[in-house]
């Protein structure tokens, strides 16, 4: 931690604070946007956590990763979105250099934990539906271990900048902080390469492989007649659309940020203005809203309890007969076919 606070970036912090890269109106607009995103993210993710704690029906092992995702997104909104809204309102980063390091570490910790949770959700659904490990049943201990691994992996790769391998610095229009991917120092470059390969590429590969396998399994089960054709088509359509939404949200949130970072790392001569670099930063921050909407409220169980919770007991949609999720339907049919 002492190494991070005495980093060369610390001496550049005051210079960065003096730079006004946007007109005053631009900073105010960013502040309003981030305030809106943060408030919505806090409400949505807190709702997921609250309804899970209130209803035992939701406290199932398969939902642990969903709740873990909500916890990570809530942390990212509180530690990243709220400070960004305040700093933009002031026109400069308000936390000082120590606050910048703390913000960079916290946002990165929660952000990577969220990405790992998304990958964990994909893998767990694959395990329940396709059963690639044979007769091993997905249990509470597996869910707990998966959640613990997501935090340990995030902590493992976000601690190094606090001890000298990599750095946190002002980014975008100098009102938020994150990993320093502009540095030409070999140590920092090596950290950024490892960081994005292991904390972005690996989770993304897990998501693509798991959901591709999942859709293929659904089609195979439908083809051999293990479920009724209509039910199979409905389950396949539901899972397919959810997968498309998940992958698109993941790419929209994180691919621009990862692409920009890798472009700067591998082509040091490229000139990217701070205003342009700001866009991927705030797109990544917006994932705290996408995740609960897609991963949670497309889940019938959560939707049944979350909507009345948000609307003070009112539900604008008429109650529907509960539909089994695709993993449950397919899992039970696969067992019956054995």
TrEMBL record:
Name one process (GO BP) from the record: phototransduction
The subcellular location is: Membrane
**Species of origin:** Denticeps clupeoides
Q: How does it sit in the membrane?
A: Multi-pass membrane protein
Q: Which family does it belong to?
A: Belongs to the G-protein coupled receptor 1 family. Opsin subfamily.
Where along the sequence do coiled-coil regions lie? none
- Using the UniProt annotation, give all residue ranges assigned to the region (Disordered): 319-338
Report biased composition (Polar residues) as residue ranges: 329-338
> Which Gene3D superfamilies does the UniProt record give?
Rhodopsin 7-helix transmembrane proteins (1.20.1070.10)
Q: What is this protein called?
A: G-protein coupled receptors family 1 profile domain-containing protein
């Amino acid at each position: 931690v002492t190494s991070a606070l005495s980093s060369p970036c610390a001496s550049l912090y005051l210079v960065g604070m003096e730079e006004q890269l946007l007109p005053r109106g631009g900073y105010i607009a960013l502040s309003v946007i981030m305030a809106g995103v943060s408030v919505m993210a806090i409400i949505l993710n807190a709702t997921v956590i609250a309804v899970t704690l209130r209803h035992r029906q939701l406290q199932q092992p398969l939902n642990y990763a969903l709740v873990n995702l909500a916890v990570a997104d809530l942390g990212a909104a509180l530690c990243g979105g709220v400070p960004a809204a305040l700093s933009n309102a002031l026109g400069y980063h308000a936390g000082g250099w120590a606050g910048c390091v703390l913000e960079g570490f916290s946002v990165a910790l929660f952000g990577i934990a969220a990405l790992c949770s998304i990958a964990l959700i994909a893998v767990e659904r694959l395990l329940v539906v396709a059963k690639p490990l044979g007769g091993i049943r997905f249990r509470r201990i597996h869910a707990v271990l998966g959640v613990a691994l997501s935090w340990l992996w995030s902590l493992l790769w976000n601690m190094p900048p606090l001890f000298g391998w990599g750095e946190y610095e002002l980014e975008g229009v100098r009102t938020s902080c994150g990993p320093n991917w502009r540095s030409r120092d070999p140590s920092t470059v090596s950290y950024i390469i490892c960081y994005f390969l292991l904390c972005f590429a690996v989770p993304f590969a897990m998501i693509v492989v798991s959901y591709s396998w999942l859709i293929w399994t659904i089609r195979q089960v439908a083809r051999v007649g293990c479920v009724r054709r209509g039910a199979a088509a409905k389950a396949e359509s539901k899972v397919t659309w959810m997968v498309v939404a998940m992958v698109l949200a993941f790419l929209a949130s994180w691919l621009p940020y990862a692409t920009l970072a890798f472009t700067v790392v591998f082509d040091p001569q490229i000139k990217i203005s701070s205003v342009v670099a700001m866009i991927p930063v705030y797109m990544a921050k917006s994932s705290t809203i996408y995740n609960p909407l897609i991963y949670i409220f497309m889940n019938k169980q959560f939707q049944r309890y979350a909507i009345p919770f948000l609307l003070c007991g009112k539900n604008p949609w008429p109650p529907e007969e509960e539909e089994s999720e695709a993993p449950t339907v397919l899992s039970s049919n696969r067992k019956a076919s054995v």
